[in-house]
């Protein structure tokens, strides 16, 4: 499906992956982030609420120190995240005249009702202040068993927490293919995924980026998590600026359509609807 009514989306969570933040051994690069920032400015001019979920802290720290060994233990990743997180926030701030706000979350924050409620209130207050939230996992304090695993699922959780109606995952691939496009040039992009189409998980592959924790499988799982809660999800190629097609009401990648909420049992209603 090529056409999409982008005008109807008012609250958008945009996830930007490490491959776009810190490509080609650079700590942080404007190459892909500046066009994304310009897209966000267009969304803001259209009175859309935007939250950015930004990866890249570990990669930024890794590249800043000029490291070459990709076999990192948890403590090394946590230290690199501490170095890289401030770099990432400064990186985003230079693209916007308005203030950006660092929001660090853990899975405990999401699962704890009181903390999740506090986070929800913070997001609402930031919107009133006109500040742009930049969300990342608080990598310096979480343990391996408590990690989201990647920022794709964090983005889905943030989308639920902020009552978003669209989750936009900007990656370094065009979306979900029926085979690995890096290995099979004949792989076909799946542009439209209906609700409850769990077969799409069988097409997902692991990450080809050595410093990326995710991969297409994590993106698909995040998309399915969001769509089950009534949030559309689009996975597109941030390197080619495919997201700009949304401004023309065209589908830029793989569009996962939300499950109608009348089909969701009240017993499994959104636990993040806290207000």
TrEMBL record:
Keywords for the protein's UniProt record, in alphabetical order: Amino-acid biosynthesis, ATP-binding, Cytoplasm, Kinase, Nucleotide-binding, Proline biosynthesis, Transferase
Gene3D superfamilies for this protein: Acetylglutamate kinase-like (3.40.1160.10)
Name the UniProt record assigns to this protein: Glutamate 5-kinase
Entry keyword NADP: no
CDD domains xrefs: AAK_G5K_ProB
Catalysed transformations (reactions): L-glutamate + ATP = L-glutamyl 5-phosphate + ADP
Binding sites annotated in the UniProt record for substrate: 55, 139, 151
Encoding gene (name): proB
Main location (coarse class): cytoplasm
UniProt pathway: Amino-acid biosynthesis; L-proline biosynthesis; L-glutamate 5-semialdehyde from L-glutamate: step 1/2
Places the protein is found: Cytoplasm
Aspartate/glutamate/uridylate kinase domain: residues covered: 11-237
Lineage: Bacteria, Pseudomonadati, Pseudomonadota, Gammaproteobacteria, Kangiellales
Residues annotated for ATP binding in this entry: 15, 171-172
Function according to Swiss-Prot or TrEMBL: Catalyzes the transfer of a phosphate group to glutamate to form L-glutamate 5-phosphate.
Gene Ontology molecular function: glutamate 5-kinase activity
């Amino acid at each position: 499906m090529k056409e999409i009514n982008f005008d109807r989306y008012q609250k958008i969570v945009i996830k930007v992956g490490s491959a776009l933040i810190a490509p080609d051994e650079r700590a942080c690069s404007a190459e892909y982030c500046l066009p994304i920032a310009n897209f966000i400015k267009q969304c803001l001019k259209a009175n859309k609420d935007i939250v950015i979920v930004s990866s890249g802290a570990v990669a930024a720290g890794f590249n800043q120190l000029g490291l070459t060994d990709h076999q990192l233990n948890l403590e090394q990743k946590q230290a690199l995240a501490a170095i890289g997180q401030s770099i990432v926030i400064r990186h985003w701030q230079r693209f916007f005249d308005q203030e950006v706000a660092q929001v660090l979350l853990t899975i405990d924050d999401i699962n704890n009702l009181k903390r999740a409620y506090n986070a929800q209130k913070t997001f609402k207050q930031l919107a009133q202040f006109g500040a742009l939230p930049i969300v990342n996992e608080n990598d310096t304090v979480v343990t391996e068993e408590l990690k989201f695993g990647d920022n794709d699922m964090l983005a889905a959780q943030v989308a639920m927490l902020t009552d978003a109606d669209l989750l936009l995952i900007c990656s370094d691939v065009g979306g979900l293919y029926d085979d690995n496009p890096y290995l099979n040039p004949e792989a076909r992009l799946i542009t439209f995924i209906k609700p409850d189409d769990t077969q799409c998980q069988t097409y997902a592959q692991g990450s080809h980026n050595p410093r990326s924790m995710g991969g297409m499988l994590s993106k698909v799982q995040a998309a399915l998590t969001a769509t089950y809660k009534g949030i559309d999800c689009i996975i597109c190629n941030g390197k080619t600026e495919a997201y700009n097609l949304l401004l023309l009401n065209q589908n830029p990648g793989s569009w996962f359509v939300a499950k109608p909420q009348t089909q969701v049992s009240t017993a499994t209603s959104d636990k993040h609807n806290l207000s």
